Amino acid sequence: MLARPIRLLCYMFALALAVPAAFAKGPSMLLSFTPCRLSDPNLNQCIWKALDEAIPIIAPGVPRLGLPQMDPYHLKSMEVSKGQSQNQVVFKLRDLDVHGIRSFAINAINFDRKTYKCFVGIEARERFINKGFYEISGRLFMVPVQGKGKFETWMDNYKSNFTIQFQKITKDGEYFLEPLHLSKTISVSRIHFHFYNLFNGNRILGDTVNNLMNQNWEEMLDDFKPTIMKLFDQVFMGYIKTFCQTVPMGDYLQD
Known about the structure:
The protein is an alpha+beta fold. The protein has one domain (4-254): TULIP domain (Bactericidal permeability-increasing protein, domain 1, Super Roll). It has helices at 9-25, 43-58, 203-215, 217-246, and strands spanning 36-37, 73-82, 89-99, 104-112, 117-124, 128-140, 143-156, 159-171, 174-187, 190-195, 253-254. The protein has a 5-stranded antiparallel β-sheet, covered by helices on one side. A 4-stranded antiparallel β-sheet has the order 4-5-8-9. Helix 1 (9-25) crosses helix 2 (43-58) and helix 1 (9-25) packs parallel to helix 4.
């Protein structure tokens, strides 16, 4: 549910540097760009600048690179369970739209030119909002709950740290970066939940359950995190691999 997303910056290490160069090669130049150089003593600053320039280009999507729109980012479905046995509740979420990626800003970066490992820290300058449809049944905080309808969540002070390990390979006489693995952490100062039409529209019962989720938001986040992290692995590693297989390293990062 937090997908979101979300998230993005891991694959954007390579993607953000190269998107302007890819556009520059086309008939319509959208952004003048000079590739970063591994020998540059200010390499991290160069990558930082390139990422900041690339975010507003990436967010609407980059069709010529096969990358879909990122803000809002659409997820077809996800399922999250909380608790066990008779005290379990299942959230079935569909048609999720994640808003706020355009507001991402870099707050830290470190690229190791010897190992090709890159760390990127980001923060959202605006609320990170998720909207979609839900179906819920079971027991939440020992309270029987059921419902079906629209939902919204929004997060305050969203931050993520990403570390991605690349290796340099040769293909058709050119160098490419190949992503090997990705690790990440997320943090927020607060999450707000609102599920509409709980208990077939019973406002008193619905408000009670929404208040329970908001009062226990940290526990809710802990339950959702494993699903979110698995989703990040599937979505963002797919983006990274697609891009790195398409664009030579020399277009964005030169020896």
